[in-house]
TrEMBL record:
<dbReference type="InterPro" id="IPR023606">
    <property type="entry name" value="CoA-Trfase_III_dom_1_sf"/>
</dbReference>
<dbReference type="GO" id="GO:0008410">
    <property type="term" value="F:CoA-transferase activity"/>
</dbReference>
<dbReference type="InterPro" id="IPR050483">
    <property type="entry name" value="CoA-transferase_III_domain"/>
</dbReference>
<dbReference type="Pfam" id="PF02515">
    <property type="entry name" value="CoA_transf_3"/>
</dbReference>
<dbReference type="InterPro" id="IPR003673">
    <property type="entry name" value="CoA-Trfase_fam_III"/>
</dbReference>
<protein>
    <submittedName>
        <fullName>Acetyl-CoA:oxalate CoA-transferase</fullName>
        <ecNumber>2.8.3.19</ecNumber>
    </submittedName>
</protein>
<keyword id="KW-0808">Transferase</keyword>
<dbReference type="InterPro" id="IPR044855">
    <property type="entry name" value="CoA-Trfase_III_dom3_sf"/>
</dbReference>
Length: 401
């Protein structure tokens, strides 16, 4: 069975992380993604470390399932070439600053006039309207602006960023949802549309109960570290060999937990009778529970907790994660063949589609790896391709020529 997005042609004009992550998902699902990178050296992420054999690991993390070409955006003929390719595509994805696509002659209104079925998808830092529309979209700035950082960390540490660029990644995933919605609507109407999201909007959509606490009760949540904001005990606890997450979310689970730990006396302790009392005496409760937990290792306790119906699990390092039998059994790491690095292991698409193989078979491209091949597929004759390369309008990687 073919992949679900097979046949969709995506022109990827994105860079850094939010846009490339979006188009990688589309490519993993079968879309024909052409990543366009500016000359002379390709997109900015290629310069960001760490590096594996001089190839950016950052770039590798967000650019599989694509074919890569190089075009000089500064030359009029290069921009004309981009427009020509856009008008032959189903979807154009971009994450330039607001107004840049219009300045290049590639704005949605202009393209849609010639191609009414075109879907354009855009990511900005703070949206296309309002006083912050011209701000550059940097993940940590958006994490702070959206209130996300105010919920992360502890009273002692103060606000802390999430350990990955969650604003970029979230915006990329939201844009995929918007694109798929536009594709479905186009199937009914024949018309495309302009789909937009931003780092700010994507993060605010994840505020969940914390956002609703403010909107409903005007409560401003404070960072609470590794404990649940409204349930106790629920969080991280020390064992004999490191931290363990415990999530006994109900009163019945609390009673079971005490039994498993040999601390049944706590069930009748006036400080811990109900969740409300446990929340008030959270620090004392943690000390009591850790006295019992330090008698065994985190994996020993994990097995006992799961057997007893208590959600629990260790806090793994990435070394632990990639060696974990559950991760391996679920096939969450895939191997691709990279033209320079050889075997390249990557975290794969985290979706299972019944009867469909969703593994990517295309490694992240080297700069300009597929220029000739893509141009030919877009209807250009060999002589025209030769001229574009000779005039420096486009770039073809020598190793892939």
């Amino acid at each position: 069975m073919s992949l679900p997005l097979a046949g969709l042609k995506v022109l990827d004009l994105t860079r850094a992380l939010s846009g490339p992550f979006c188009t990688m998902i589309l490519g993993d699902l079968g879309a024909e993604v052409v990543k366009v990178e500016p000359m002379p050296a390709g997109e900015m992420a290629r310069q960001w470390g760490p590096f594996d054999d001089d190839i950016s690991v950052y770039y590798l993390s967000a650019n599989r399932s694509k074919q890569g070409i190089g075009i000089d955006f500064r030359k009029p003929e290069g921009l004309a070439l981009l427009r020509r390719m856009a008008l032959a595509s189903d979807i154009v994805v971009e994450n330039f600053k607001v107004g840049t696509m219009d300045a290049m002659g590639l704005g949605y209104a202009s393209l849609a006039q010639a191609h009414p079925g075109l879907i354009m998808a855009s990511i900005s830092g703070f949206g296309s309207k309002g006083p912050a529309r011209d701000w550059a979209g940097f993940d940590q700035v958006a994490q702070g602006y959206s209130g996300f950082m105010s919920l992360t960390g502890t009273a002692e540490s103060g606000p802390t960023r999430v350990g990955v660029a969650i604003g970029d990644l979230t915006a990329g995933m939201w844009l995929v949802i918007g694109i798929l919605s536009a594709v479905a609507q186009r199937a009914a109407t024949g018309r495309g549309q302009h789909v937009e999201t931003s780092l700010l909007a994507g993060l605010m959509a994840l505020l969940s109960v914390q956002g609703q606490r403010y909107l409903s009760k005007r409560e401003v949540p404070e960072p609470c570290g590794n404990v649940h904001p409204v349930i106790a005990p629920y969080g991280t606890f020390e064992t004999a060999d490191g931290p363990l997450n415990l999530a006994p979310a109900t009163q019945a689970m609390w009673v079971k937990l005490c039994g498993i730990l040999g601390l049944s006396r706590l069930v009748a302790d006036a400080r811990f009778l109900t969740n409300a009392e446990r929340m008030q005496h959270r620090y004392e409760l943690k000390l009591e529970l850790e006295q019992g937990l330090k008698r065994k290792t985190r994996m020993e306790w994990t097995a006992l907790m799961i057997e007893g119906g208590i959600p629990a699990g260790p806090i793994n390092t990435l070394e632990d994660v990639f060696a974990d039998p559950q991760v391996q059994a679920c096939g969450l790491v895939r191997s691709l063949n990279h033209p320079v690095l050889g075997e390249l292991r990557q975290v794969g698409l985290p979706l299972g589609l019944d009867g469909t193989e969703t593994a990517s078979h295309r490694a992240p491209p080297v700069f300009g790896q597929h220029t000739r091949e893509v141009f030919a597929r877009y209807g250009m004759a060999d002589a025209e391709i030769d001229r574009l390369l000779a005039d420096g309008v486009a770039h073809q990687a020598e190793a892939a020529a």
